[in-house]
Amino acid sequence: DIQMTQSPSSVSASVGDRVTITCRASQGINNWLAWYQQKPGKAPNLLIFAASNLQSGLPLRFSGSGSATEFSLTISSLQPEDFATYYCQQAHSFPLTFGGGTKVEIK
Amino acid sequence: QVQLVESGGGVVQPGRSLRLSCVASGFTFRNYGMHWVRQAPGRGLEWVAIIWYDGSKKYYGDSVKGRFTISRDNSKNTLYLQMNSLRAEDTAVYSCAREGVEGVAAADYWGQGTLVTVSS
After folding, report:
1. Which of A90, B59, B63, B77 could form a disulfide with B29 if both were Cys (CB 3.0 to 4.6 A apart)?
2. Dihedral pair phi/psi, residue B30, rounded to 5°
3. Which of A6, A93, A96, A98 would you mutate first to test chain B, the one with the most B CBs within 10 A?
4. Does B103 have pLDDT greater than 80?
């Protein structure tokens, strides 16, 4: 199975900060990576698919990059509504696997 | 708009069975693959299973393989998860999610989930 490792597990940041979250796959997954945002008590929301494609309707401050085993999600200017937990997920092979999550907290 | 509504959760004893349902609306259900994903209290997301749009292929997570079965009834716009031999570690909120169109390779819509508690 492909293991997905996210870092950091949590980050404290202020509104307006640039935040980058990293996701590492235990083997190459090409660009088959998605990023989700989840707020407490809510269902996850797809942000990025195929490593760098922003889901329709979402703000441009979210961007994804990477390939093979190293990926990142960047929020260019953190907004109050962005405080949440973020998960990466590989879609290269079954079983699909998620990273452990990164909680973005208010500093 | 796309809606996914899960039901069937509850409290069940270890070793017993439970069947979850997910009713879909707002899109052509028979054209999309569907997932089940779970989240234990205070924990991260865990992928459970996927079924192809026509039911022809099914894949499972390691922790549920051989105990859980995913199925669908396209005439009823409904996805199912049959859970047998339940264990305490299966306690979680179970959510269904729609697989995006070809090239998306991600779950683009999610239900709110139904809570399954396995306890004696």
Report:
1. B77
2. -70, -10
3. A96
4. no
> Given this model, what pLDDT does residue A50 score?
96
Give the three-state DSSP class for B28. Answer: coil
User: Mean pLDDT over residues B41-48, rounded?
Assistant: 97
Mutate to test the interface with A, among B109, B110, B114, B115 (most CBs of A within 10 A): B110
Omega before residue A95 within 30° of 0, cis: yes
> Percent of chain B beyond pLDDT 70?
100
Cβ count near B41 (within 10 Å): 9
The CA R_g of chain B, rounded to the nearest whole Å, is 14
Q: Name the region of B76 (left: φ>0; alpha: ψ -120 to 50; beta: rest).
A: alpha
Joined tokens for residue B22: 């997910």
CB B67 within 8 A of CB B83: yes
Nearest to A67 by CA among A38, A11, A27, A15: A27
> A39-53, A88-102, B14-28, B97-111: which has the minimum mean pLDDT?
B97-111
Say if the Cβ atoms of A95 and B62 lie within 8 Å. yes
CB contact under 8 Å between B60 and A95, yes or no, is yes
| Mean per-residue pLDDT of chain B | 97
The answer to whether the CB atoms of A91 and B106 lie below 8 A apart is yes
Q: What is the CA A58 to chain-centroid distance, rounded? A: 14
B104: its two tokens: 């998306």
